Amino acid sequence: MPPDDKSQKRVERLFSDIEHIAQQPLSTGGNKLTERESVSPVTNEAAVSSSAKNTSTALRELEALRSRIRELETQLNIAPAPATLIYEKEKVGYVYSDDHIMPLPMADLPLENSEHGIRTPLTASGEPIGEMQIEPPAERNWTPEEKELANSVAQQVSLQIQNLRLLAATERARAEALSANRQFTHENWESFMDGIRNSERIGYAYDQAAVTPFTASSPDQHDLQETINVLDEHVGNLFLKTDPARILTDEDKAMVSTVARQIAQQIESLRLLAEASRARTNAEEATRRLTRENWQSFTNQKNDTLSYAYDSIQVTPFGKTQIPQDISFEQPLMVRGELIGQLTVAGLKDVPPGAIELANNIAEQVSSHIENLRLFELNERRARELETVAVVSTTASTVLDPDELLQSVVDLTKERFGLYHAHIYLADESWNTLLLASGAGEVGRHMVMTGHAIQMDKEKSLVARASRERIALIVNDVRQEPDFLPNPFLPDTRSEMAVPMISGDKVIGVFDVQSSATSHFSQEDANIYTTLALQVAVALQNARLYVEQSATVAQLRELDRLKSSFLANMSHELRTPLNSILGFADVMLEGLDGPLTDYMQNDLGLIYKNGQHLLHLINDVLDMAKIESGKMNLNIEKFKLQETIEDVTSITSALANEKNLALFIEPDSDHEVEINADKIRLRQVMINLINNAIKFTEKGEIAIHVAREANNVLISVKDTGIGIPIDQLESVFQEFTQVDTTTTRKAGGTGLGLPISRRLIEMHSGRLWVESSGVDGEGSTFYVFLPIEAKIKEDEPKVK
Ligand code: ADP
Predict the structure, then answer these.
(1) Residue of 710, 707, 727, 722 lying closest to 784 (CA atoms)
(2) Is the pTM for the entire model greater than 0.85?
(3) What mean pLDDT value characterizes the chain?
(4) DSSP 3-state assignment of 649?
C-alpha cells in the first residue's frame, strides 16, 4: 500500500471515531456530558443502539449544520481586508505634471490663484468636495474648447471619487458584518464552554488504539501542532507525535491541517447540536407548562364536581369533600408529563396480580381521552367565539348611529359570550376621562344615564390601565385583588377583562367584560376580544364619520338654499329700479323729454345698452336661483312647435341680419308636430341657442331643424361659426364657463345661458347637448331632445 493511501485510511478512521464521539453525548442526554462517561465510544454500544432513531435524526441535523458551516467558511475566505476611510476623512491633493502623478503636500493646498489657470469644482451628490486646477504652460491662454474639456474631466473625476467613496462604504459595511459574525461565534463559544460546566480545557488523546481523556494543558513533546479554529476563533489545538521511524512529509502536514479543520467543524456541529437540544428541552418544558396552565384554567371554570365514583354498577359524582376510604392503590392520570388527576382503586381485599398494570393501562387511556375531550371542548368554544366575533362585528358595521351601534355590541357580546356584564367606555381626551358610553341590559343603561366615568390616569382602575398600557388586561379573581373597586350595580362580578379599542394609533375607548365565574378569561380570550374590539373601533369610527358627513351635507344644503333664496330676492330688488332706469333712458332717447345733444344721445345709448346687459344678467341669475332652490315651476301646455320656432327666428333675425348671416328653418323639418311643454321656457332655450349661434359665427348660416322621433322631437341648431373644442363640449354647460373669455367678452354673455337651458330641458325629462369638431368654420350643433308629452321632473335643490 502506498504511504499516502495508508495515511488516508488513518484519517478516515480518525474521522469515524470523531463521529462516534459526536453521537455519544446526544444519546446519553445532551448536556449531561461529563468527561468520564463520554470517552469510550466503542464500549458504549448499548446506549448508542437504544437511541438509534435519535442518532439518525441527529446525523441529519449534523449534516445540515456542516453545510451551513461550509457556507460561512467560504464567505469568510472571500472577504477582503477592511477598506480605509481615505475618501471621506482626509484632505488629499495630487499634482499631475510632466507625465507624473505626485501627492501634494498639505502645505501647498490650495494653489495660488493664477490668472490663466482654470479652476473647476469637484462635487459629489451636489456637495462640493474639492477643486481641480489646471495651469497652462507659460505664455499660453486656454481656448474655449479646452475649458469645456477641463469641465468634463472634472465631472468624470467627481463621479469616479463618488464611486470610490461608495465602494469604500460598502466594503466597510461588509467588514463590520464580518466582525459582528466573529464576535457572535466567540460569544457563543464562551457560553458553550460555560454550558458544559468546564472552564478548564477538554482534551482527548488518540494512540491508534483508543481515545482517552487527556487533562494536561498540552503534551510535553509534540512534533507538529495545528490550531483548531471555528470562524477564525481559536478554540483548541491538535498535537501530533510522529512515529520516530517515519518523517512527516509535506502531504502529511497538509492532511493534518485538513484534519484540524474537520475537527473544528465537528466541534462546532457538536456545539450547535447541544444548543439545539437545549432549545428542544425548553420547548418541551413550555408545552408542559401550557398543559398545566390550560388544565388549571379548565378545572377552575368547572365549578361543579370533577370526581366520579364507579362501583361496578354505575358512575356517580363524587363530592369534593368526600375522601375515598380503604384505598387499595392509586394511579396518576398524566398528560404530557403533567399530573391532571388520579385513578384510585378502593376496597380490594387482595390486589390480584396484573391489576396494577391493568389500572395503569386504564389510567393512560383515560388520560388521553380526557385530554381529547378537553381539546374538543376548547375548539368548539373557540369556533363559537369566533362566530360571535363575526356576528357582532357584522352587526356593528351595519349600524350607522354610534350610540345604537355600541348598545348592540354590548348586548350581543353579553348574550353570545354568556357574560355577566359588558360595557364600553369612550375616551374623552379633553377631559382626560373614559366615559361610559354603553352598557348591557338595564344595569348598563342605568349606569350610562348617571354619567359613569373613570379618570384616565386612575392608578387602580383596570379600565384606565388598559387604555394606558394599550393591551388587554385580565383579573381572574376580583376578590383576591386588593385594588378592586366593587361596583354596587354589579355585585356578582368575579373575573374581568378590559380590552383597549384602538383605531389608527389612538385608543378611542375600552371594552370591558365581566363574568360571574372566577378565571373566566384566558389569554386566548384576550386575543379574541382584542380582534372584536378592533373591529368595533373601526365600525364606530365609520359611524362617527357618517354622522359628521350627514351633518355637513345638511348644513351645505341649508346654505345653498339660503344662497339661492338671497339671490332670488336680490335679483327681484335689482330689477325694479333697473327697469325704471331703462324706461326713462328709452323715453329720453325717443326725444319725449326734449331735444338731446349728440353727446347726450351717445351717453344715453350707452346707459341703455349696459342697462339691458345688466337686466339679462339679473334675469339669468334669478332663473338659476329659482331652479336651484326648487322654485322654478313649469307651465305645461299643448302647442305647435313650428309656431314657437318661427316666433324665435323672427325675434333673432335682426341680429343675424346685422352680421349678414342666413337664419332659417330647414325645409324638411316637421312643421306639424305638437308638444306638451312649457312654451315660454322652451322659447327661452331656443332664443339662447340661436343667439349663441349668431354670437359665435362670423359668416355662413344658422340652420334649425325639427324632426319627430317616435314619442319625442329632436330640434337642432347648427351654425358655421368658431365651434367648441372637443374637450369643452360638456363644460360649456357648467355655470359661468366660457370657452374663450376674449371672444365672449367681445360677444357679451354671462356663462349662465347654457346651464339654465340644460336644466330647463331636463326638467321636461329631455336632454340638451352639443356636437362640434372644434374647427373654426365647421361650427357646432346644439341638440334639444324632448318627449312629446313632457314628464315633469321636480328639480331637487342641488348641493355643489
Ligand atoms: P354666454 O352667456 O357666455 O353665451 P352660455 O352658457 O350661453 O353663456 O355659453 C357658454 C359658452 O359656450 C360661451 O361663452 C361660448 O364659449 C360657448 N358657446 C355657446 N354656444 C356656442 C356656439 N354656438 N359656438 C361656439 N361656442 C359656443
Answers:
(1) 707
(2) no
(3) 79
(4) helix
